[in-house]
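Fig. S4 source data, part A: sequence.
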Amino acid sequence: MNIEGMTCAGCEATVKNAANSIEGVLEANASYDTGKATVKYDRSKAMRDAIVTAINKTGFTVKTQSYK
């Protein structure tokens, strides 16, 4: 995910914590240097939209997403 607005390590932590707050998220990583976050989740327990919404509620914005 491309995340707009991250400028420091605290921002990374906020994005990671938001993603990890969703049941079914297995791992979340974020980098303010690249402006990206990677989230691994169990598709039977979590929905992409819920993860995006949780991140957006922090004040950062998910701009684009790619899925594997």
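Fig. S4 source data, part B ends here. The chain is about 30% helix and 30% strand.
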